[in-house]
Amino acid sequence: MTFSPITHLRHVDLAVPDYRKQLDFYTSTWGLTKVADDDGIAFLAAEGSPEQYIVRLRRGDKRMDLVAFGAASAADVDALAERLIAAGVTIVREPGDLDTPGGGYGLRFFDVDGRVVEVSSDVAVRQHRRVEERESIPVKLSHCVVNSPDPDRMRAWYAEHLGFRLTDTLWSPHMGDLMYFMRCNDWHHSFAIARGPHASLHHASFEMRGVEEYMRGTGRVKRAGAKLTWGPGRHSAGDNTFSYFHDPHGNTIEYTTELERILDEDAWHPGIHDITDPLTADQWGTADPMSESVAKEQFNDPDVLFSPPPV
């Protein structure tokens, strides 16, 4: 049986030079709630999520500090550490108590591309609430997508070491496989790997209450002056809506809703979605067609690899 220690996506951590500008955008414009802010580090929660925070911002040179996932128990964290060490994976922080909001028990390590991954258990549940009808703020962090110059190797690594399963593939008759959608629970994807010129954050996606709230949020962020790079539309793989924006430092972030769920694991067979079919990118036909210029908007700057963040 495949070892599958990962239960869900927890948070994405970003470092940026203009910390105050980024913090203001994510709270005042994007709709997250600051739960802690201390000496250039802020922890931002979604009102509808039990996670203590879903984005961490840090003052520093631009980079993706880490992506964090949940585990069911401390025993699973320890078992994961043992397996990673045996496989020769570099551990950044040995399993131990966490000093971030909600506490918990976790470890950090490098993935095969060199980005930092955190896996934790026993984090206290945050008091959250139901997001109301027409309230256009994120309910939770939906998924994280990264760019990789070798997505085949990345897909195999996350499947072997973290137990992610392939759900669907975006494919081009000229370029081959372009994106792998990976799941760790019954959501279509919590993580995805895109073919890119370098390792970087492709986008982080935030779930809205429903289509009405998703559209209101899209309009609100547009009116605030954020750059809409693609959307609104509805993807084929995952069947979710999409509106992609750039934050003040050029990271792509997405409003989405109604992501597909895989309720019968045994009956699911990964599909191949041809991007030359217009319905693959956008079932509605409301967004600009997928093009090289649209794809480049998600390449981002090359990330800092095999170098852990200071905190």
UniProtKB/TrEMBL annotation:
Residues 8-122, 140-258 form the VOC domain. It comes from Actinoplanes subglobosus. The lineage of its organism: Bacteria, Bacillati, Actinomycetota, Actinomycetes, Micromonosporales. It comes from the Bacteria. InterPro entries: Glyas_Bleomycin-R_OHBP_Dase (IPR029068), Glyas_Fos-R_dOase_dom (IPR004360), GlyoxalaseI/FosfomycinResist (IPR050383), VOC_core (IPR037523). This is VOC family protein. Pfam families: Glyoxalase. Gene3D superfamilies: 2,3-Dihydroxybiphenyl 1,2-Dioxygenase, domain 1. Residues 289-311 are annotated as: Disordered. PANTHER family: GLYOXALASE FAMILY PROTEIN, METALLOTHIOL TRANSFERASE FOSB. SUPFAM superfamilies: Glyoxalase/Bleomycin resistance protein/Dihydroxybiphenyl dioxygenase.
